[in-house]
Amino acid sequence: MHSRLTADAVVIGAGAVGCAVALRLARNGISPIVIERDDIAFNASGYAWGGLSAHFGSGVPGPMTEHYRTSIAKHIELYDEFAETAAIDWQLQKVTSLSLADDENTAAELAKDVEWMRSEGFVAEVIDGNDVYRLEPAIREGIVAASVVNAGWELDSYSYTKSIATEAERRGTTFTDGNVVAIHTKSDILTGVALADGSTISTPIAILATGPWTSEIQGITALPIKPIKGEILRLSRAGNDLQKRVGFDGFNVGRKPDGSVWAGTYEWDRGFNRKVTEEGRQHIFNGITGYIPSLKEAVITTSTACLRPVATDGLPIVGPSSVAQGIFYANGAGKKGILLSPLIADWIADLIHDEISAPKIVSATRFLDI
Ligand SMILES: Cc1cc2nc3c(=O)[nH]c(=O)nc-3n(C[C@H](O)[C@H](O)[C@H](O)COP(=O)(O)OP(=O)(O)OC[C@H]3O[C@@H](n4cnc5c(N)ncnc54)[C@H](O)[C@@H]3O)c2cc1C
């Protein structure tokens, strides 16, 4: 590591958001240095479910629906553009999801959701119990209805993040190992970033794509973001059923393109603890076998836990910091960071060029002093 470097821009963090920002900047002729202390896609971005959906999530129904939709369109464009050249196929595919109801109240709630989805142009319907078993015979008895939504997409989040990092590198981005410990400013203007090994990088632009860890960096104000842990089990010997995503009571199962069945998840506040636990595995396994009993025969081959960066209002924090000119946040994408990564990248690139395409609801100024 050099003791002093200069860069057009520094991106801190090589998750999906940092890599997408780097790719966008590189395409705009800025050659950023991306600094990552673990590895590319080592944290949540490498172990997410990979769902891209606009019909549910924070700010839906509401202002985020349109932004999630826009970002899905950007994902499709990216995939089409790089399908031929990408080092790894990140397997973007359309998926059909079933949400189950085992009582009339839940069925009525699903019906209301579907009514709203249809009014927004999503392909969705409610089916009765008999039709549920025709679609997915492995589901336990006692299901009275389900919503069937054919509006979401999925990708492999590890391959996606690695691939866009490779594309960013090909266009002039440098990836460097390092732990950024401080932001340096002078007269309210960013001058550079300091690394734990004592080196510094002088730069007029720093983008914090640090997931839930932003508050560890000195020289900026702590963001109102919490790490919310989740976990995914990968199962083998799960039979041949389950071609759709099936959700019930907060759990989800679905078969991935390699044939393995994935199951998730929970939203637990365990601080920065990223370890897989027996408690987590049991919680998910009991949850999914409660509605797909045949999965009791399946074998858990892998379980992965990671931390979502969740802001107190559940919405991303994207935009300039009030600490000093040149510092930008690209944080807090919560449960939607894979989905939002290309859109956040565009918002950041526009902001750097003094154009504002990012909506007010994601701006850092909605919180005081950050
Ligand atoms: C179980 C689970 C399932 C999920 N499913 C989905 C899904 O289906 N769809 C979806 O869109 N999202 C999903 N998410 C959310 C998604 O994973 C996150 O929103 C997204 O990965 C966040 O990306 P990021 O780049 O902001 O953060 P991260 O992936 O956490 O990357 C941040 C990087 O910054 C690095 N870093 C931090 N501080 C420093 C520093 N000081 N110096 C150097 N490097 C630093 C870290 O090492 C890390 O690698 C899921 C999350 C979980 C936990």
Describe this structure in words.
By secondary structure, the chain is α/β, with parallel strands linked by helices. The chain has three domains: 4-79 and 157-224 and 313-366, 3-Layer(bba) Sandwich (FAD/NAD(P)-binding domain), CATH 3.50.50; 96-150, no CATH class; 225-311, D-Amino Acid Oxidase, Chain A, domain 2 (2-Layer Sandwich), CATH 3.30.9.10. The protein is 27% helix and 29% strand. The chain contains eight helices and 19 strands. The protein has helices at 16-27, 44-47, 64-82, 104-119, 129-135, 157-170, 278-289, 337-352; strands at residues 4-6, 9-12, 32-36, 51-52, 93-101, 124-128, 145-154, 174-177, 180-186, 189-195, 200-202, 206-208, 225-236, 245-248, 251-255, 261-264, 299-311, 317-320, 327-331. The strands form three sheets. Strands 4, 5, 6, 7, 13, 14, 15, 16 and 17 form a nine-stranded mixed beta sheet that branches. Strands 8-3-2-12-19-18 form a six-stranded mixed beta sheet, with helices on one face. Strands 1-11-10-9 form a four-stranded mixed beta sheet, with no helix packed on it. Strand 18 and strand 19 form a beta hairpin. Bound molecules: flavin-adenine dinucleotide (FAD). Flavin-adenine dinucleotide (FAD) is lined by residues 12-18, 35-38, 42-45, 48-51, 179-180, 209-211, 213, 216-217, 230-232, 264-265, 306, 308-309, 333-339.
